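Let us work through a complete example step by step.
Step 1: write down the sequence.
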Amino acid sequence: MKITKAVFPVAGLGTRFLPATKANPKEMMPIVDKPLIQYAVEDAVAAGITELIFVTSSSKRAIEDHFDSNFELEANLIACGKQDLLEMVQNILPEGVSCAYVRQRSPRGLGHALLCAKQFLLNEPFAVLLADDLIDGGADTCLQQMVSVFEETQSSIVAVQRISMDDTEKYGVVASIDSGEPLSRLSGIVEKPKRQDAPSNLGVVGRYILTPQIFDMLELTGAGASGEIQLTDAIAKLLKIEPVSAFQFVGKRYDCGSKLGFVEATIAYALKHPELADSVAALLKSFAQCSN
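Step 2: predict the structure and record it as tokens.
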């Protein structure tokens, strides 16, 4: 089985970034000169994904517009002779990659978002990418690494990283048979446990590869006290009937769902940007000198 489809759950309200997200999707907030969602899409496309499925809401039209053509803008760039900028906006999505959009009418959790996309995903494995998690994987993106693993295992995979035990209530946390290895089989998973109840220090981050059996588990998973259907609960059911692996990817993950993580990612990517790197390094140095 090949992975050719990816789901991007982008219907969240982005309340941690209000008022910036009152009228603008948090996924469209830029890290230097590209929105968060574009980084996630680039991760998927690099891994061979050709069908992108966005689970949106009524306030997320800007995401659809970003991946569509803008004839007025393109005509202006042509008239001004700005060929480099024209090529940039025309190649946001490469040839052969398509988009589909479905709305999640109310924010009922990640599991419910996947159920909204079920019609596009019958009987085949698929990837899930959360744009909040910006992962710099170097030569191979995080999803490229996971697809390579899937080609060998043909079973569901969740991306994990080691976290502080003080942060377990922010993550789904896994128990695995051999957590010392980059790839290990899950023996359990729990959503946002208290420190004393966490089965390990391996937290789930926003990259998954899931087999179609996950939909059976999601349909058996009722909404929790918050009214949300948790993907973590469905994965806990899934691992009882088929193998599920935890994968410790190679790369640096930035939690852009938090303000500090967003600022950290902006600085890190600015320091890699060919137009900005030297100037930003000098600016940071001047800030450091002023603080001393």
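Step 3: interpret the result. The domain at 5-257 is CATH 3.90.550.10 (Spore Coat Polysaccharide Biosynthesis Protein SpsA; Chain A).
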